[in-house]
Design a protein that fits this description.
Helix content: over 70%
CATH class: Mainly Alpha
Shape: globular
Radius of gyration: 33 Å
Distance between the termini: 134 Å
Number of strands: 0
Oligomer: single chain
């Protein structure tokens, strides 16, 4: 039988055991906190175990449907071909497509919206022909592209695909573009086929003349002729020609800005451009081209009886171009790219103005007919 001293001793041991058990979670938390720091001190960074390194949270990337994201999401073997046709940089496709939309909208009957199936058809054609043009350009320029920082990563220059593979890919794009062209009337088929000479020869112009941007303008704005003929069956040159020339002037504006990105590399490798031709007088030349564009748009509008919304859009285009030129820094490539890409807004503004102006034609014709019927 235990005495009082034995009972006190047992009670003390039980209290000490309970105190230690209560302290265990605190010690465990302290050990967990100190372990990464201790491991980081013992192991040098190259040999540090993965468990010792702090693992940042992995936030889920937001879902994006941009052209660049879609190309990155494509299968690896397909990506070089998509980049070869610049599918990840849709600004050029827009600049090719928008003159088509102007012409299609101008050719619509008074009071009507543009013919949406034709707009969709020309959209597909713009993607294919811009891709074909970029493929041809890279085939001609693969040796030059290797020497320019901005273009050295292009698939042909980087060796991701061969010249033969790009040639086969070009044939596929042109075949699909021909299918689109064959959906149009005979006049438009012949007119569209006539542009191939410009498409093939443009990449050579930078070796020959300081005005390759002019040849690009003649090429990129062919849709200003083709869109009208696709709707009306032939070109009304009193409308199509000033619209086409306005588009050419627009291309001289935005592609001269674009060329200023590469002017230092162009000097080193012997490539010519309007950026090198104009130098510090660039803004004066761009202002002249912009004025010529606005005059061409006004003439085209007058010859097809456009209304107030159209001329309001032309004024907005003029203001946008003036802002571009005034704020342009030709010595900052990032600013040049920003101004170049903003020209999609110019084209969309004009398209919206044409559509609204055409819808107003019907209202004006009704107000003219009502007094005549009342007599």
């Amino acid at each position: 039988m235990r005495g009082p001293s034995g009972s006190a001793s047992a009670g003390g041991k039980m209290a000490a055991l309970l105190w230690r058990l209560g302290r265990a979670p605190c010690r465990l938390r302290a050990a967990r906190t100190a372990l990464p720091a201790a491991a980081a001190a013992v192991w040098p960074p190259p040999f540090r175990p993965a468990a010792a390194a702090a693992v940042p949270p992995d936030p889920r990337r937001p879902l994006s449907f941009s052209a660049a994201e879609l190309v990155r999401a494509a299968p690896g073997r397909l990506q070089p071909y998509l980049r070869l046709m610049r599918l990840h940089q849709p600004a050029g496709t827009w600049l090719l497509y928008l003159p088509c939309t102007w012409s299609i909208a101008l050719a619509a009957p008074p009071g009507s919206l543009p013919h949406w199936p034709t707009l969709a058809l020309f959209g597909a054609g713009a993607v294919l022909m811009r891709g074909a043009g970029c493929t041809i350009n890279d085939m001609w320029d693969r040796d030059y592209d290797k020497k320019v920082a901005r273009t050295a990563s292009r698939p042909l220059a980087a060796g991701e695909i061969s010249t033969f593979q790009s040639f086969v890919f070009l044939g596929g794009q042109l075949s699909l573009a021909l299918c689109v062209l064959l959906c149009l009337n005979y006049y438009s088929i012949v007119l569209g086929a006539a542009s191939l000479t410009l498409v093939v020869s443009y990449p050579l112009m930078k070796r020959i003349t300081y005005w390759p941007q002019l040849v690009l303008g003649l090429t990129f704005n062919w849709g200003a002729l083709l869109g009208w003929s696709a709707i009306r069956g032939s070109c009304d040159w009193s409308v199509c020609l000033p619209l086409y020339l306005a588009g050419v002037m627009w291309t001289l504006v935005y592609d001269t800005i674009y060329a200023h990105q590469d002017k230092r590399d162009d000097v080193l490798i012997g490539v010519k451009s309007t950026a090198l031709q104009f130098k510090e007088d660039t803004k004066r030349w761009l202002s002249g081209f912009s004025m010529a564009m606005l005059v061409g748009l006004c003439v085209a509008g007058m010859n097809c009886n456009q209304t107030f919304p159209y001329y309001s859009a032309v004024a907005a285009v003029g203001a946008h171009l003036a802002h571009q030129i005034y704020t342009l820094d030709i010595d900052k490539p990032e600013d040049c790219w920003k101004k170049f890409a903003s020209n999609r807004t110019v084209g969309v503004l004009l398209f919206v103005g044409i559509v609204l102006g055409n819808l107003c034609k019907r209202q004006e014709s009704k107000t003219v007919q009502e007094p005549l019927e009342s007599r």
